[in-house]
User: Fold this.
Amino acid sequence: LPLPNELEIHKVFLCSFSIGRTKNNTAIACTARNAFKFGGKTMIEVGMTYTAEKTVTPDMTAKAIGSGGLEVFGTPFMMGLMEYAAMQCVQPELPEGKGTVGVEISSSHLAPTPVGMKVSATAEVTGISANGKMITFKVTAHDADGLIGEGTHTRAVIDNARFLQKCNDKLARV
Assistant:
């Protein structure tokens, strides 16, 4: 995907000082916080978070989706909620016509959650590629009893119309 014309890449540096051996016997330890702006007015930056919540219903169970035989919160739904949190984390900062699509997710599912219990998924931006096209997230899921899942997720910034056209062009090829 080409880089959108209105995309500007900005690196913000937060520095702390520590003593070490450099040319002047002082080391400056800088942690780069990547960020990018669209049209100079919106910004996505490392550290942004979003939390999504749902109450587990019978149609959100492993048994209902076929990923297992028990009526407990299904892993595919947990991962879907994680993706949703990541999408919502950055979507408000994108210009009209732009969006993100999930390209990778890796997650553990650590504990079962019963039907009727509230679950939440939180996504935190952990990195932005140098060209601004890829955004990485730390994702976690909790229920009232604690952590139920954790992992990482990557989303690509896309032009919605171009992406849909490319997708629909597949029909003409088959």
